[in-house]
Amino acid sequence: MSFPSLHIHAGRLPLVLLSQLLLLFPLSCTLHRHHAMSDFKIPFESNPNQTLTYEETIACYEKMAAAHPGMFQLKTAGMTDAGLPLHVAVVSHNGEFDPMKIRQSGRRILLINNGIHPGEPEGIDATVMLLRDLLNDPARQKVLEHLAIVVIPVYNIDGCLNRNSYTRANQDGPESYGFRGNARNYDLNRDFVKCDSYNARSFNQIFQTWMPDVFVDNHTSNGADYQYTMTLIATQHNKLEAPLGDFLQKTMKPYLYAEMASRGWEMIPYVDGPGDTPDQGISDFCDYGRYSTGYAAMWNTIGFMPETHMLKPFADRVHSTRAFMETVIRFIDENAAELRIAREAAWKLTREKKEFVLDWKADLTHIDSLEFKGYTAKYKPSDVSGLPRLWYDRNEPYTKKIPYYNQFVPSLSVKKPLAYIIPKAWEPVVQRLELNGVAMKRLSQDVELEVENYRLGEFQTRNAWEGHYFHYGLKVETQTAKRRFHAGDYVVFCDQPANRYLLETLEPQAPDSWFAWNFFDPVLMQKEYFSAYVFEDLAAQFLKENPDVKAELEKKKAADATFAADASAQLDWVYRHSPWYEPSHRVYPVARLMKEAKLPF
Ligand SMILES: [Zn+2]
């Protein structure tokens, strides 16, 4: 507000003077308040091989915020590992930027995320142009009667600042771009549940604030060559609650595919399948909670990762990304009421159903077919190794039916408990539940309760993956026992919107559980042991006093010759069946309360 007279008279200033002033004060919001100031151009529009830098992107959003205060709001919302705050822009009519009030008015919410992989920057440029043109054209603003658009302009700020021209080795432009890893070299599109990065923790909170109906996370794909510029990962529809999955599969996806084709950007599902080349078939992608759309699915949000093809020119990739977002916006505008109904039915199921699926697998007996426009895959001797190498012959395009595996079935399910009890010591877990707005109560005094405990059995571990030693394939044994809990421990009832998130993170067998991501590793280690020469006498006395254990030992010796010949193994076996063995070893700390109990709060 330092230049009010300039603001009022800007339109009458000689052009030369105005441009000089702009050079002097390039970041002054006051100067940009004039409507015309949001009619800027971005570098892409004069050179289609350029993408905005982080600083240029935020400057564009600041211009739009200054020019359209009644329709556009730009705020910072949480920190990133880069030490810079995330920005969140909201486009909404009537100056209403409160998510609760927007929802109460019946409008839907679309969340768009850009630059999670900054080497794949189409969404950054496409969204700036889309928003600018919407804000400058009243005819385009009709859609705001049915939805609000929320945008994270750049999510991986860290990687976006790490600009180079090489790390997307095979990609056709832009000439320079950011890097995939964030400031701590995390892939943020694996971090939505474990939340190692501040970026992800801030995202969890932004997502909970807006609880979008539809979520779009813009990407570029690698892989095979084919004729399409745009490929699409949609939330695997069987992973959504049935009413919402059906809506996505039968109503929304057919609309998006048809509309994109009519705009000249025919799409194909993300090209990933059982063979080396796409003509052997395409399979839907199982988007677990670590991925953006998988996290969204935990909250009954339909998610899309549009993946433009890296071998197509950057300009085509930007234009098709914009076309996709505009198509999604149009669909929501035309189907707002149906989307609301489908989502409300899904929420009801999430709150009330008794059994939850933890993992899925492709149903290989159910094969659809898909018309695919590819290029013929061929092999020729490599100039590098002399061995056969794959190449796609663009002079031999083909159109043919290929197998499409798009039905997934549950491979692991579990009954939900009445509540989980989380001992207060496991703070990193509690913090993540808090970020996600999970309702928790705390015990006001110590109490003994009958609960289900998991004893952790065998599992496999993947070395040094995304900052973790990721566990998978866990086997558990369920034991019902009395267990003592303490004042301050957390009780999490499974009757809330967060149910699915709770089951998929707190059940240790779930593919993206806290257990899988090493949050509970300390309980895997035994802390005390025995001195064999001393324990020999104690063990002998214990077997004398416990003839049933002794009988079990003799039976095992009779059945297992190796065991019968191994003195240490037998002593260890007795120790593990004795009261000296620590009861907490390999017991999963989070308990499942299965029946109503009087709980002190
Ligand atoms: Zn990506």
Low-confidence stretches at least 5 residues in length (pLDDT < 50)?
1-34
How many DSSP H or I helices? Answer: 18
Major pleated sheet: 9 strands, mixed
What CATH architecture of the largest domain would you give? 3-Layer(aba) Sandwich
**Strand residue content:** 15-25%
Q: Are any ligands bound, and if so which?
A: zinc ion
From the N-terminal CA to the C-terminal CA, the straight-line distance is 52 Å
Alpha-beta content class: alpha/beta
Query: What is the quaternary state of this protein?
Result: single chain
Number of strands: 22
| pLDDT averaged over residues | 93
Count the domains.
Answer: 4
CA gyration radius, whole angstroms: 29 Å
CATH topology of the largest domain: Aminopeptidase
CATH C-level of the largest domain: Alpha Beta
Percent in helix: 25-40%
Given the C-alpha coordinates, what overall shape results? globular
CATH superfamily of the largest domain: Zn peptidases
